Write a sequence for this structure.
C-alpha cells in the first residue's frame, strides 16, 4: 500500500514539475530538481510495491527506539536544524562539512579524523557539483569570490 502511495505521489510530483515555467536564458531549468525528486519517488514506490506484493510470510515486527535511540533521533534532527540555519552565514560547503562530519562521528563508530575526511569530501563535492559545475546560487560564506 505504501509503495503504491509513493508511486502515485511521484506521478503527481512529475505532473506538477511539468507545469513549472522557466526562461530560455537559464542554464538549469527550475523544473529539473522536481523532475529528479519525482522520478526517484516514482521508481522507489514501484520497487517497494513490487517487493511487498511478492513478499510471502509473516509481517516483521518493528521495534520502536528505546531511550538511547530516541536521543539519537533528537540529536540528529537538532543537528539538521543547525545545518539549515548555518547554510546562509557559513555557506553550503562549510556547513555541509560541519554537518556531515558531526553526523558521521555521532552516528557511527568512526574516529574523528575519518569523520572529518568524509565531511571534507562532502563539502568539496557540494561546492564542485552545485556551485562550480551547475552554477547554482547557493551561499558561499567566507569562500565567495
Amino acid at each position: 500500500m505504501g509503495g503504491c502511495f509513493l508511486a502515485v505521489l511521484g506521478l503527481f510530483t512529475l505532473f506538477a514539475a511539468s507545469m513549472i515555467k522557466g526562461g530560455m536564458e537559464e542554464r538549469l531549468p527550475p523544473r529539473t530538481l522536481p523532475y529528479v525528486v519525482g522520478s526517484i519517488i516514482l521508481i522507489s514506490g514501484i520497487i517497494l510495491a513490487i517487493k511487498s506484493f511478492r513478499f510471502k510470510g509473516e509481517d516483521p515486527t518493528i521495534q520502536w527506539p528505546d531511550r538511547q535511540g530516541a536521543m539519537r533521533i533528537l540529536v540528529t534532527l537538532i543537528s539538521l536544524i543547525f545545518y539549515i540555519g548555518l547554510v546562509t552565514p557559513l555557506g553550503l560547503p562549510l556547513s555541509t562539512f560541519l554537518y556531515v562530519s558531526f553526523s558521521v562521528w555521532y552516528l557511527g563508530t568512526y574516529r574523528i579524523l575519518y569523520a572529518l575526511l568524509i565531511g571534507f569530501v562532502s563539502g568539496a563535492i557540494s561546492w564542485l557539483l552545485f556551485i562550480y559545475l551547475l552554477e547554482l546560487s547557493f551561499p558561499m560564506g567566507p569562500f565567495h569570490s
Remarks:
- Residues 67-143 form one domain.
